[in-house]
Amino acid sequence: MTVSALMTRTRDAVLPPFEEIVAEHGPVVMRVCRALLGPADAADAWSETFLSALEAYPKLRSESSIRAWLVTIAHRKAIDQRRGAARRPQPAGDLPEIPATDPASGGESSMDDDLRAALDVLPAKQRGAVIYRYLADLSYAEVGELLESSATAARRSAADGIANLRKHFSKGAKR
Amino acid sequence: MSDKQIIDRLTNAFTDVASDGRLHSRLAALAERQGLLAVSYHTVDSPLGLLLLAATGEGLVRVAFSCEDHDAVLAGLASDISPRILRTPRRLDEAAHQLDEYFAGKRRAFNIPVDLRLAHGFRRSVLEHLRRIPYGATQSYAAVARAAGNPSAVRAAASACSHNPLPLVVPCHRVVRSDGTTGEYLGGPEAKRALLAMEAAA
C-alpha cells in the first residue's frame, strides 16, 4: 500500500501491517540515521526509531504522512543519542575514534567520505535542511517544523547547504 | 557538479543496502523482547504452494494458502488482532518444520500451540471438534454439526470449515459431504483431494 493511499483514508481506517512500514521506509530512515550520526551509531538509531514507531503505531492517525512521522522520531533519537554520548564520561587515555568507513561504497568511497565530511561541517540548520529535504524527501513545510523554523527558512537553508557543498567540490577540483 | 549530481551523490553516500536483513531481525527480536510484537509471520513453500504462517504470543493463529492472497490476509490480521505485525521467521520455525514433516508423510498430528481467537461461537466449537478428527479419517458436515453441539447447523458447520483460520493444522480437509464427495476447500478442491489421498496412503 502506498503512502498516498494511506493518507486518503478516513480516520478510523485500518492501518497496514507494520512490516509494510519497515519495508517501505526502512531505507530512507537508514539514510537519515547515517547522515545524522554516522555509520557506527546509525544501526542503533534505526532500531530505536522503529521500536518507538511500533509502540505508537496502533494510535497513529492513518492520514498522517508516515515518512515525516518516522523521520521526526529519528531526528529526536539522534538528538538523544548525541546528548547521551556527550554526557558519557570519556575514559582517560581513550584512543581517538577510528572513523567508520562505508563497506558498500567500494571504489568511490573516498569521494563519498569527502561528501560526508563536507555535510558534517555545514552549519546545523543547513545540514538539517539538506538531510531532511533531500535524503528524507520531506516537504519544506515539514523540514521547517523539524528545524523549528518556517518553510521559507528551510528552503533557504537547503539551498545554502547545497551551494556550500558545491563550493566545496569546485574548490576540491582546483586543488 | 550540478545540484542534482550533489543530491544523487549524497543519497548514494548514505545508502546502506548491506545491513537490511540484519537490521530487520534485530528489530524483530527487540520488539518481541519488549512485548511490542502482536503477530509474527513467515511464508514457507509446500506441495500446495506458498503458505503464510502467522502466530501470536499464544500460538499459531493463521495458516493461509496463496489463493487467499497473503497481503489481504495480513491486512485482515492487522485489523482483527493488531497492526503490530512483523515478518519473524524464527517464531514460525517449529510450525514450518512440523508442516514439512506432515507433507513428507512423517507426521500424523501437530504438536504446536494454536490460538483460535479468529473464530467465535459455533465456528469455534466446530474447530475444536475438528482437531479431534484423527489423521486419515473423514467425517461428514452433518456429523461435525452434531459433534459441535448443533445437529441442525450443517450449513454453519460447512461455513466454519470454509472460514477455518488454521487449515492443515486444524484439519477441515477431513470433513466431506454425506454423499462421499470431497466438497469445497480453502486451498481448492484439488488440494483437499490430494491431502485425503496422502493421508489414506500413509
Characterise the protein shown here.
The complex is a heterodimer of chains A (175) and B (202). Chain A is mainly alpha-helical. Chain A has helices at 3-7, 18-37, 39-56, 66-87, 109-120, 124-135, 140-146, 151-174. Chain A is globular and about 50 Å long. Residues 1-11, 93-99 and 101-107 of chain A have low confidence and may be disordered. In chain B, the strands form two sheets. Chain B has a four-stranded mixed sheet with strand order 3-2-1-4, with helices on one face. In chain B, strands 5-6 form a two-stranded parallel ribbon. In chain B, a hairpin with a 4-residue loop joins strand 2 (51-55) and strand 3 (60-65). The mean pLDDT of chain B is 94. Chain B has helices at 3-13, 20-33, 70-80, 93-103, 121-130, 141-147, 154-162, 189-201, and strands at residues 39-44, 51-55, 60-65, 85-87, 139-140, 175-176. Chain B has two domains: 3-103, Double Stranded RNA Binding Domain (2-Layer Sandwich), CATH 3.30.160.70; 121-201, Orthogonal Bundle (Arc Repressor Mutant, subunit A). Chains A and B meet through helix 2, helix 3, helix 5, helix 6 and helix 8 of A and helix 1, helix 2, helix 3 and strand 4 of B.
Keywords:
heterodimer; A: 175 residues; mainly alpha; Rna Polymerase Sigma Factor, Chain: A; Arc Repressor Mutant, subunit A; 2 domains; 69% helix; disordered N terminus; B: 202 residues; alpha/beta; Double Stranded RNA Binding Domain; 4-stranded mixed β-sheet; two-stranded parallel sheet; 43% helix
